[in-house]
């Protein structure tokens, strides 16, 4: 009745969409807070690497003939999430500089 591959793709797409909806909140918080305190660059790097592997998995599936709607939905959100976390990591470095400047101004 149900195709397990389609269900698995649907679950992956929902997971990636949920992550995709969460990253803009993190980017916004990083932008507004202007501090790196409470952020973990290592955590974001591991997630970033995970997205690279997810994108690679989708390349492999694409070249093996998987081109359904859910596949393209997940594909798009992998790229979107990758861009969003890259922006958040860039803001981390900006905020580290701002933290150092604020600490220097206090002394």
Please describe the topology of this protein.
Elements: H1 4-33, H2 41-63, H3 69-106
Helix pairs in contact: 1-3, 2-3
How many β-strand runs? 0
Q: Report the span from N to C terminus.
A: 69 Å
Estimated helix fraction: over 70%
Low-confidence stretches at least 5 residues in length (pLDDT < 50)?
none
Overall SS class: mainly alpha
> How does the major sheet shape up?
none
Order of helices and strands: HHH
Number of helices: 3
Strand content: under 5%
Query: Which value, in Å, is the CA radius of gyration?
Result: 18 Å
Shape: elongated
Mean pLDDT: 89
Structural description of this entry:
By secondary structure, the chain is mainly alpha-helical. It has a domain at 43-101. The protein is 85% helix and 0% strand. It contains three helices and no strands. The protein has helices at 4-33, 41-63, 69-106. Helix 1 runs parallel beside helix 3 (69-106) and helix 2 runs antiparallel to helix 3. The radius of gyration is 18 Å and the shape is elongated.
């Amino acid at each position: 009745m149900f195709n397990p591959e389609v269900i698995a793709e649907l679950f992956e797409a929902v997971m990636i969409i949920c992550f995709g909806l969460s990253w803009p909140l993190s980017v916004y918080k990083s932008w507004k807070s202007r501090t790196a305190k409470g952020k973990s660059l290592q955590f974001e790097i591991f997630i970033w690497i995970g997205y690279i592997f997810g994108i690679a998995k989708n390349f492999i599936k694409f070249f093996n003939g998987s081109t359904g709607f859910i596949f393209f939905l997940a594909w798009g959100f992998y790229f979107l999430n990758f861009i969003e976390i890259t922006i958040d990591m860039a803001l981390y470095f900006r905020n580290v500089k701002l933290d150092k400047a604020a600490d220097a101004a206090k002394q």
